[in-house]
Design a protein that fits this description.
There is one protein chain. By secondary structure, the protein is of the alpha+beta class. 31% of the residues lie in helices and 26% in strands. The protein has one domain: tRNA-splicing ligase RtcB. It contains eleven helices and 17 strands. The strands form four sheets. A seven-stranded antiparallel beta sheet has the order 10-6-8-7-17-15-14. It has a six-stranded mixed beta sheet with strand order 1-2-3-4-12-11, sandwiched between helices. Helix 3 packs across helix 8 and helix 7 runs antiparallel to helix 8. The longest helix is centred in the middle third of the chain and has 35 residues.
């Protein structure tokens, strides 16, 4: 298979960094963060960098970090199991009303959006309560809580089926045949955040008592070693949060489709549907070696596997099929990737520019979403070109409605 990566060498480390970054910006701080990660002895055989790469907390967003015998909680982060879901419907563009404002409002009423109490259910819908019970998530959480009572779990029954804020979204899109898709982006919400924060703190406490035979360049690379009780407990908890994130996306999708059935002509769901994480860790075998693979803003792209690569508000998104590239640990990017920090975007992008960039989309056009405007992100065209050996495009989607928290 042809390859499109470049070697981004880590000085003083035998661990290579392979980056799919041709034609896309790579900030110096992100590159330095990658070198720090690659310098840790149990990381490798190499680190893979996706074209949406940018500086992150704990680990670089857009990176794939394999580890042997150890796991780094802050590399996964606190938005555990964050990812995408999409489904194609039998609706066509002509079935949509010219004015989508009412549909957007109904989705926002049905799916709480935003952070804080305003982004939670006042009362858990019966369907969500049944989902939690039948999935075994409540029982799984109780088992985790029995060993780690300091983990707060009061948000689980208020946040299943909720969107959150930041870059999380719900979209109605059209593909190249004018078929209507529903696509959304969210994760394990506050419960996943509490679990991630708790174990990151435990890892830092462990680090203070470790005698290391190497230099750890960043406390956010604090880790658990295989065989330690906290290693097994974290694997159990992070797996639970990933399952919760998937269920959260399914719950939201059900609510969105319910609102669409009320306001649009009758439709069915087609077979093409995707639900994939892009902030997670799991055991995988690569080159005959069992590794713990952390994808921090990266999607699994095994040969034939479907994934979702969203652009930004106002730009295209893609349904892709993985090519199973071994150099990337069978991975691809999780989106366009930020080119501006949120602070920089708020200072640099005007409300007029945001409204012009999203003129064709029914969405929020106020100052509070400026940091999510298309100009804050890399060119999705360049990002897709840089990873042509990782995925093939199955469908190209264009947004017509976008809900943001």
């Amino acid at each position: 298979m042809s390859t499109n990566y470049e070697f981004l060498h880590a000085e003083g480390s035998a661990t290579a960094i392979k980056g799919w970054v041709r034609g896309v910006p790579l900030e110096a701080q992100a590159h330095a963060q990658l070198r720090n990660i690659a310098s840790v002895p149990f990381v490798g055989p190499w680190v893979a960098v996706m074209p949406d790469v940018h500086l992150g907390k704990g680990a670089t967003v857009g990176s794939v970090i394999p580890t042997r015998g150890a796991i780094i909680p802050a590399a996964v982060g606190v938005d555990i199991g964050c990812g995408m879901a999409a489904v194609r419907t039998t609706l066509r563009a002509s079935d949509l009303p010219d004015d989508l404002a009412q549909l957007r409002s109904s989705i926002e009423r049905s799916v709480p959006v935003g952070n804080g109490p305003g982004g939670e259910h006042r009362k858990l819908p019966d369907s969500h309560e049944t989902r939690l019970a039948q999935s075994g998530l409540m029982a799984g959480l109780e088992a985790i809580k029995a060993k780690h009572r300091k983990i707060r779990t009061d948000k689980i029954d208020r946040q299943i089926g909720t969107l959150g804020g930041g870059n999380h979204f719900i979209e109605i899109c059209l593909d190249e045949a004018d078929a209507v898709w529903v696509m959304l982006h969210s994760g394990s919400r506050g419960t996943g955040n509490l679990i991630g924060t708790y174990f990151i703190e435990r890892a830092r406490e462990q680090l203070a008592h470790r005698v290391l035979g190497f230099h750890l360049p960043d406390k956010d690379l604090a880790f658990f070693m295989e065989g330690e009780p906290l290693f097994d407990d974290y694997v159990e908890a992070v797996s639970w949060a990933q399952d919760y994130a998937r269920q959260n996306r399914e719950a939201m999708m059900a609510r969105v489709l319910h609102e669409m059935r009320h306001r649009l002509p009758k439709f069915q769901l087609e077979k093409m549907a995707v639900n994939c994480h892009h902030n997670y860790v799991q055991k995988e075998t690569h080159g005959g070696v069992e590794l713990l693979v952390t994808r921090k803003g990266a999607v699994s792209a095994r040969e034939g596997e479907l994934g979702i690569i969203p652009g930004s508000m106002g730009t295209r998104s893609y349904i892709v099929r993985g090519k199973g590239n071994a150099d990337s640990f069978h991975s691809c990017s999780h989106g366009a990737g930020r080119v501006m920090s949120r602070t920089q975007a708020r200072k640099s992008i005007t409300l007029k520019q945001h409204r012009e960039a999203t003129a064709h989309v029914e969405c929020r056009k106020d100052a509070d979403v400026i940091d999510e405007s298309p100009a804050a992100y890399k060119s999705i065209d360049a990002v897709m070109a840089a990873q042509s050996d990782l995925v093939e495009v199955v469908h190209t989607l264009r947004q017509v409605l976008c809900v943001k928290g």
